[in-house]
Design a protein that fits this description.
This protein is of the alpha/beta class and 470 residues long. It has helices at 2-24, 32-38, 64-67, 76-88, 101-113, 127-144, 165-170, 205-223, 249-259, 281-286, 313-320, 337-352, 355-371, 409-419, 441-464, and strands at 43-47, 50-53, 58-61, 120-124, 152-156, 188-191, 228-233, 263-267, 292-295, 307-311, 379-385, 388-393, 422-423, 425-427, 430-433. The termini are far apart. Mean pLDDT is 96; it is low at 1-8.
Amino acid sequence: MQTASKTRSRAETNADLWEMDRAHALHPWTHFGSFEREGALVISRGQGTQVWDAEGRCYLDAVGGVWCTNIGLGRREMADTIAEQAMQLAYSNPFVDMTNEPAARLAAKLAELAPGDLNRVHFTTGGSTAVDTALRMVSYYHHARGNPDKTDLVARDYSYHGSTYLTQSVGKRPGDRIDEFRYKTDGIHHLSPPNLYRRPEGLSEEAFCDSLIAEFEALIARVGADRIGGFIAEPIQASGGIIIPPKDYLYRMWQVCQRHDILFIADEVVTGFGRLGHWFASLDEFGVQPDMITCAKGLTSGYLPLGAVIFSDRIWSAMAEGGARWFTSGLTYSAHPVACAAALKNIEIIEREDLLAHAARVGTYFEARMADLARLPLVGDVRGRKLMLCVESVADKATKALLPDVVNESKRISNVCESLGLLVRPIGHLNVMSPPLVITEAEIDFIAETLTVAITRVTDDLVREGYRIG
C-alpha cells in the first residue's frame, strides 16, 4: 500500500510539473500552438549520455543537451568542485581591477590551449554574449588604430551566432528572422553559405569554392575595405545545417581577411572543446589562425553557464595603446568563480581521460554508421564531421526537392525516435546529432538502428498520405 501511494504521489507531482511549466514558462524558440497543446518533456535526471524523464523513461541523448554535454552528465567530481567553490567563494566582482583565483587560472589555461597568439580572454555568460562582445570588439579595435569607420560585419546565410539583438542580426538562419522582431541591418552583410550539397548543379567543389571567394572579394570591392572590420564564421555551420565547407574555403577566406585588414572571428561555441577531436577546430582542422575565438557550451560541458572571447595579443595591444581607454563592456556574472572552477575541472577531465582522441576515434565510427542511412528513400544527404552530424530529408533524391514545410517530417522522425528511447534534434528538414564525447560505439549502433526504424516508419506514413518519396 505504501509503495502504491508513493507511485501515485510521484505521478501527480510529474503532472504538476508539466502543468506548471505549460502555464508559466516561455521556452527558447517556443512554438505557441504546439506548446499550449502538448507542453514540454520534463527531464529529471542524467547520467553519462542518458537522461530520464519525470515518468522514469530513459533516453540516449544524441543531441548532447544543446551541443554541450561533452564529458557526460552526473559527474560527481564536477558536482563536488562546484559545491566546494560555492562554499569558498560563491561570487566575486569581476569589474575593473578585481578578479578571483578560478578566473585567473582559467584565463591562463585557455591561453595555453588556444592557437597562436590568442593569449587574452574576456569572460561572458554564454555563447551569445561571447559573440556579441567579439563583434563589438571589432569596432573598438579599428577605432583604436585610427579607423573609426571600419565597423561593418560580414557573416553567412544559414549562420547562427546567438540570440542577442546584435548576434541575431548577424546570424541568418531560416526561421530565426520573424516579423515580430526587428533586426539591425545597417553595416551587416551576408554571403552565400558554403553548402556543398546545395551547390549549383554541375559545379565542382573547387569551382564552387572559387565562386564563394569571388563573392567575398566582390562584396569588399562594393562596400569598401575601409568600412569592413570583421568576418565571423562557424568552422562548421551548426544549427544552420551542419554545413561542411569546401576544401581550403576557410583558409582562403582568412587570406582575403588578411589582405584587407579584416578581423577573422571563429565562432567555436559548438566546435570548441572536443566535438571534432580538437580543443579548437580553426587551426587544427581547417588551417586557419583566427584573430578571435568565441566559445561556451563545451567549456563547462553544460554544468554551469560560461562563455569566453579568446583574442590575440595584437588586438589587446591596439586597444590598450597609450593606457587611457576604457573597455566599457562586461556582465555581472563575467568570470563567475563557480563557473570558472567548473570549466577548469571540465578541462582537467577531458585531458585526463584523453577525450579528444576518443572523440576523433569514435567520431569516425559515427560518420561511417550514419552514412548507411543515405540508402533510405527519404534521406537526401548525411553530412558532418566526427561528433556533429545531420540527416537531411528530401522528397526526391535526384532533384534534392524538399517536402512542404507543413509535413514537418523531421519532427515526426524525432517523435518516433523519442518513443524508442532516443533524442535527436529536428531543425527544418534536418535531424541533428551532437552526442557527448564519451559516447560508445555500442551507443552509436543504437542511434543508427533507431534512426533507421524511425525514418522508415515516417516514410511509410508519408507514402500512405499520398506523398511521393525517392
